[in-house]
Write a structure and sequence with these properties.
Layout: E1 3-7, E2 10-12, E3 18-25, E4 34-39, E5 46-51, E6 58-60, E7 68-73, E8 78-83, E9 92-98, E10 101-102, E11 106-110
Parallel strand pairs: 2-11
Antiparallel strand pairs: 1-3, 3-8, 4-5, 4-9, 5-6, 7-8, 9-10, 9-11
Length: 112
């Protein structure tokens, strides 16, 4: 059974950090690109970061460049999103996507 499970969200103050995880199972994760999206209230879901199957290629939305880092550990079938210097406008539900499958979303709230 294919599973994609996102976790690691929470409440953090502006300037703080969080690390999201995307644990997968049921398919050969190492062959697939992985993506993190986010959706803020009243807004469309947007692509935040992408990583290639081997991890050699990464891309970021302009709004998070220099602050977020996407990575993966193919031995653990898991991808990560390290988020630093968080801003209130980063508040959203964050979703990972791999092999066309969506994780259930994890809430990130940046507020003082």
């Amino acid at each position: 059974q294919v599973q994609v499970v996102g976790s690691g969200g929470g409440l953090v103050q502006p300037g703080g950090s969080l690390r999201l995880s995307c644990a997968t199972s049921g398919f050969s994760f190492r062959f697939y690109w992985c993506h993190w999206y986010r959706q803020a209230p009243g807004k469309e879901r947007e692509l935040v970061a992408t990583i290639s199957s081997a991890g050699s290629i990464t891309n970021y939305a302009d709004s998070v460049k220099g602050r977020f880092t996407i990575s993966r550990d193919n031995a653990k079938n898991t991808a990560y999103l390290q988020m630093n210097s968080l801003k209130p406008e980063d508040t959203a539900v964050y979703y990972c996507n791999a092999n066309g499958k969506w994780g259930q979303g994890t809430q990130v709230t940046v507020s003082s």
